[in-house]
Amino acid sequence: MVYIKWAFILIFWITLGAILQYSLPQHDIVRIVNTYEERQDLTDWTRIFWSEPDDQSTSLSNRDVQFIQAVRANGKPIVYRNEDTSWGWPPYFKFDTANLYTEANDAISDKDDPDWVVVTHYGWRNEFLSIFPNAIFIKHVEGPDVRIIPWFNIIFLTVFFAIVWALWVRWRRFREARIDPMLESVEDGLYAAGDAIDERRSSFRRWLDSWKSK
User: Fold this and answer.
1) pLDDT for the residue 210
2) pLDDT at 191 exceeding the cut of 90
3) Residue 176 gets which letter from DSSP?
4) Which of helix, strand or coil describes residue 106?
C-alpha cells in the first residue's frame, strides 16, 4: 500500500512538472533566418499542442500556421509556430500574431550581419511528433551572450511552492487534530471489538470443555 501511495505522489508531481515546464515562458537568443506559412494536419492526439483561436478550429483536420525559423548561437536550428492563444491555455492572452509575424520578418538577418533577438515562447519542440513551441514576444538584444534572467518563472514558482507548502502544513495540522484521533478511535474500537469476540470464543470453549468433562 505504501508503494502505491508513493507511486501516485510521484506520478502527480511528474505530471505537474511537465505542465509547468510546457506552460511557463522560456527564452531563446536566436538569429531569425526565415518566416513562412504552411498547412498542418491536426491529428486527434496532437491537437492539444496546437492553439485553438476560434471555434472552427476544433472541427478542422488541418489549417494554415505561421512559422518562424531561427538559428541559435551554437548553430543549431529552432522553429517556432506563431499562433494566438486568445483566452485559452496557457493564459498568455496573445492576440497579435500578425504583428509578431511582421516583427519576425523585420528581424531576419544573415551570418555576416547577425541581428540577435530573444524569442519568448512556451511549449516543446519535437521533430518526431511535429510539435513546435509557440512564440510570444520578440526583443532585440546586443548579442548572443546576453544573460536572460527568468524573473517571472522565479517569482511564479516561489509563490506557487509557498502556497503548496502552506496548504500542506495546514492539511497536516488538520489531519493531526481531526483525522488521526478519529482513526485512532476507530482502531481502538476495532481492537476492543476483537477482544470482546476473543473473550466470547474463550467462554464458549470453556463451556464446551465443561460438557466434555461430564
Assistant:
1) 52
2) no
3) I
4) helix
8 Å CB contact between 108 and 140: no
Q: What is the pLDDT of residue 212?
A: 47
What's the angle, vertex CA 29, arms to CA 24 and CA 30, rounded to 5? 120
End-to-end CA distance of the chain: 51
Specify whether the CB–CB gap between 120 and 94 falls below 8 A: no
Cα distance between residue 132 and residue 102, in whole Å: 19
Longest dimension (CA), the chain: 114
Say what percent of the chain tops pLDDT 70: 74
In this predicted structure, which of 28-32, 48-52, 58-62 has the lowest mean pLDDT? 58-62
C-alpha cell of 70? 531561427
Q: What is the DSSP letter of 90?
A: S
pTM of this structure: 0.76
Cell of residue 47, nine digits: 491537437
Q: Cell match 548572443: residue?
A: 144
Q: Is 130 left (phi over 0), alpha (psi -120 to 50) or beta?
A: left
The sign of the torsion formed by the CA atoms of 206, 211, 212, 214 equals positive
